[in-house]
Amino acid sequence: MNTLEIEGKNIDEAIEKACREFNVPREKMNIEILSEGSKGFLGLVGTKKARIKASLLSLDVALEKDFEPPREIKEAAPARKVVEPKKTSAAAIEPGENAAGEAKELLQGILSRMGLKFPVSVEETAEAITLNIKGDGSGLLIGKGGQTLDAIQYILNKAVGKSGRDKRMIVLDTEEYRDRRDEYLIALAAKLGGKVKKTKKPLTINHMSARDRRVIHLALKSDEALTTRSRGEGAYRKIIILPSKKE
């Protein structure tokens, strides 16, 4: 798979160049920031360009001819629904008023310390509190495969969850990245599932985040001809799509 190092005046420009180079939207790419660049003296002398490493979303798909599932592998059981219910309008929430306000206040503090001044909106359902960061068109907060977004979301859930007042999941999103990513992964699952049913051979997708793996598992859960399992540890866990025993 081609990987390119691309430079720009800033991260935004470098990512835009990468999207044009590969002719795909941001959510279908892996972006690794190598250098954020810097302005030289008086903005002229010693200026360094921002530099990124870009490649298409790595699937690392491999057919396994003689695959035998490890004995201790258990099918992933998602703790919550991946596809969030349609969001409903929520009244204005003051920071510190409740869990949603506390989460928003904490997120704004994190963004401020990162030197980012993006507005944050809050939407609530019975299952989740969604914080949406507006204006991050560059994907800076998304990170490679959504890793930065997931990391901040983890911090918010841990910090707000300590109070025990509200058990709802905090979902962090920016510019509808989550929905676009889910749509892409669901389509990918259908495509690869069809390939497994056609070849009758297991297929492995390497290195996906826990959230992305859940999307794949749920997308194929209702297909009786297929079984999905996870294998590996930590960031190196893989998804295996294989024909069901009935097949």
Quick recap:
The chain is an alpha+beta fold.
Order of helices and strands: EHEEEHEEHEHEHEE
Strand fraction equals: 15-25%
Instruction: Identify the CATH architecture of the largest domain.
Output: 2-Layer Sandwich
* Radius of gyration, in angstroms, nearest whole number: 20 Å
Q: What is the overall silhouette?
A: flat
Report the strand count: 10
Provide a count of the helices: 5
Query: What is the terminal separation in angstroms?
Result: 33 Å
Outline the structure in words.
The chain is an alpha+beta fold and 247 residues long. It has 3 domains: 3-56, no CATH class; 62-81 and 179-243, Ribosomal Protein S8, Chain: A, domain 1, CATH 3.30.1370; 99-176, K homology (KH) domain (GMP Synthetase, Chain A, domain 3). 31% of the residues lie in helices and 22% in strands. The protein has helices spanning 11-22, 99-113, 147-161, 177-199, 210-220; strands at 3-8, 29-35, 50-56, 62-63, 120-124, 128-133, 169-174, 203-205, 226-231, 238-243. Strands 4-8-10-9 form a 4-stranded antiparallel sheet. A hairpin with a 3-residue loop joins strand 5 (120-124) and strand 6. Helix 2 packs across helix 3 and helix 4 crosses helix 5 (210-220). The two termini are 33 Å apart.
